[in-house]
């Protein structure tokens, strides 16, 4: 099993007739999935998603893949294949198209409709090529065949990429529900046929590789929902991903059966469900869906709200309801259903929301106490089946944290993929397929790119470190006016503390120390403002640390007159 190394060098030139695979996101994390394929000097990108920030990334809105390695090669890109319409696969597209608008987008009808709606907000009109399962398209030197896969959003596709270097299959996100609501199965006969032809490299979804057995059927949720609907006395509020059309279909069916009206809450939910309805993916009985504004005219027992925020996102509708910061106020007797997973890293935020809702008297139904969610990703039992069917010559686990990638690689090895042909890479690790063998060739830059408000990439790890210090320790500012000729203090020092838990008046003893130190340094001929600032920082830092055992950020300002 070839492992990545922190000290990998930049990869050499791609050998003639070889295929290069560079993951820019989605390996070592759940999100911002993006893989670049290179053959004969041309590039094909599969997916371009975003990652949502965690608590140690304060103030960040989104995290993008790092486009540095392809930025000077935008003209070499033949297209971006989008496997399905989830944010962690399409959310980064607007940011890449800002750099070159005419890169073609290739995807299924629903996927393209979702990304086009998103691009409208960025005022970009993309070039698109709509494909469906069973289609083969030549995209430059890449001969792409699209295969139906079942996932938690309709119209998901895997892609087989044939080049003279061999055939690579990228599964996208998939599972193998054998009773899908739309009857669209993961096309096992197609994968078996590709396996017979010879899959040289398989990139396979690892998200649930640690989960034993098989994922329950999506339709198992219906009876659970009906039980909840039968018991609910007042309003029912369902939180789901804004793209989980099948889950929302089951909620609509239950609402219809129990004589309730449904309102969608939240911009992305209203937009996506409108698209799904217009394209015929969501079947809505006439008169069932009403506008949120008309809810006041209906009795509580006839209302269902479908909103976003199932991951505890602070700005989404559900979190705001839990914090009493939304026009919809939770009252005793409301039922809230969290019809979603716990994405790794979001557990605390989700439980905080559950506790908040419970505090206002809601009955909260979630994955922990009822089967209101099934995963969208194949678990270990399904993956074993899949590898036996595909018989890949080389395997590269994708889409997962380290533990998921390793577990997925182990499953492949159990089914007979040779250990030395199993490649565990992480973001930026370059894998070359040459003469039928996949090997790690080197590493390129593939860091996090932070979106904060309108700025992309301006916030760095250093600024986040500063934000964490400010958030945890507060700030002390020191303002001093010095005479530029003698270096003597003629004004201040004025000391202000914010968020450090120390009163401004407590700094009196340190003011004398600062003056003393500045006097000494002036006698030594040190008058350069930067050096004076460093001196003040040291004096104040040591005093605060000795007196309070705290390490706030210290901001000295020296004005020369």
TrEMBL record:
It comes from the Bacteria. Its main location: cytoplasm. SUPFAM superfamilies: Metallo-hydrolase/oxidoreductase. An RNase that has 5'-3' exonuclease and possibly endonuclease activity. Involved in maturation of rRNA and in some organisms also mRNA maturation and/or decay. Coiled coil: none annotated. This is Ribonuclease J. Keywords: Cytoplasm, Endonuclease, Exonuclease, Hydrolase, Metal-binding, Nuclease, RNA-binding, rRNA processing, Zinc. It is found in: Cytoplasm. The lineage of its organism: Bacteria, Bacillati, Actinomycetota, Actinomycetes, Kitasatosporales.
